[in-house]
Amino acid sequence: MGEYSQDANALVLLVGLLLLFFKFIITGEIKYPVSNFTNHTFLIFLGWILIGFVVNIPDIIPSYFKQTSGINRFLRQLFSLTLSSVLFFTFYYNVISYLGKQKVLTYIRKIFLASLIIVSAYSFLEILILRVGLTQLIPIIKLFDYLPFVDVYLDTRLGRLSSITYEPPALAMYLITVAGWMFSYILTSKGFKKFVPAILVLLLAILSGSRTSLVVVLFQFVVFLFHIFSLEKYYKLVLRIFVGTFSVIVLVSVFNYTAIKEFVDEKSDSLDFTNVKDNFSNQSRLGIQYTSLLIFKENPVFGVGYGQQAFHAEHKYPYWAVKNNWEFEKKYLNERVKSFPPGYNVYTRLLAETGIVGLLLFVFFVSSFFYQAKQLKKDSQNKTMGIVIIVSMSGFVLNWLQIDSFRMYGVWLCLAALCFLYNNQKKENTNVV
Is 300 within 8 Å of 354 (Cβ atoms)? Predict the structure, then answer.
């Protein structure tokens, strides 16, 4: 399963695909948004990847790095991409079609809320154990081992949160995925309880220790407030949220200035990409992204072929990125470690592997995604779903600045919901006319 080998949810989705296949065998029917423009743009992008492979095949065949051939690497990466963007997407679309437009938001959001309750319970136990020192709670958190696919892990060295996921970045990805859905309770529920899901997401993003969740989830919340601020019904609500948040920050700062200063300093250091000497992660990220641009400069139109960046980068990494950096020595340039170095940025990766044409096609796909979501927002029945998709995609697009993978399940779930709802909205408008 390659990069999916650590994802338990991929196993669940594969079971869903198997059931969908049996349904197709029995009924001879399967639903797919053949007429949706946004989905078409991504299929065109996939086509360009295949064209790039054909063009670069003379260089791909002799490539060999980390016990992997260029052909093998291309096929594995193409499988990874199509599994999420085509197969899992088709499964999502059929499930959403079965639910119908009235239940899409309700069902998906309830499932995410249930998962958030479990994730939050585990995370707050982690905080009490790792940061407050209540080690007597360890037997309680160990009870989570009884959940399927969960292996309790406490980061006693750095104190970062991973919750029921296997690492802090996975928790960040989860929070980015559910954020838009949880924020939407503010639009549809009543009383203080409508704020609880959003508060949980924001608290976990701030306390997790992950700079990704801190930056991206806060950005998503700003995007959410911006979109509901334009709605007259929620104008006063947004102002109250701003005033309330500012008041809390002022009060906490006054009564616990030292703790706040230490927290801000810690976060500022983790987000300082200018200091590569004391932060190996930043050193590696910037070095690999810079190398991708060097590869693009030599292959501007077609790139070097999808999945081939690492073969060409091996001898191009800048000295300042590799010098005294254990990540390159122990992992990225170590032939005994079979995993390939990450690209750390999907946009620079696409430039290197698919050229300027590939990147423009991908940007066109993302742009059409936002366009159709904005069209959903204009319909009173789909307004909330339109905002959810815009907020979610805003987070995914920003997150792609620091990861190079398309294995973000929330993207394809949002695309499936978008295709289904947009096509239905278009049909209804046509019938009215």
Answer: no
pTM: 0.90
Q: Which DSSP symbol is given to 324?
A: T
> Distance from first CA to last CA of the chain, Å, rounded?
49
Output the CA–CA distances (angstroms, integers) from residue 223 to 50, 350, 401, in the order listed.
35, 26, 17
Please give the structure tokens belonging to residue 225: 């407030």
Kindly list the averaged pLDDT for each block of 10 residues, start to end, along the chain of length 433: 80 93 93 92 96 96 94 95 95 94 93 96 94 92 91 86 87 95 92 92 90 91 87 71 67 54 53 55 91 96 96 92 90 89 95 97 97 92 94 97 93 96 86 55
CA–CA gap between residue 142 and residue 151 (Å, rounded)? 9
Query: Alpha-carbon Rg of the chain, whole angstroms?
Result: 23
Q: Which of 393, 279, 286, 295 is nearest to 345 (CA)?
A: 286
| Alpha helix positions (H), 192-234 | 196-207, 211-229
Q: Tell me how far apart the alpha carbons of residues 120 and 126 are, in angstroms, rounded to a whole number.
A: 10
Amino acid at 27: T
Structure tokens at 376: 């959903």
- Going by C-alpha positions, the residue among 373, 367, 378, 375 that lies closest to residue 389 is 373
Least Cα distance to 354 among 132, 36, 47 occurs for: 47
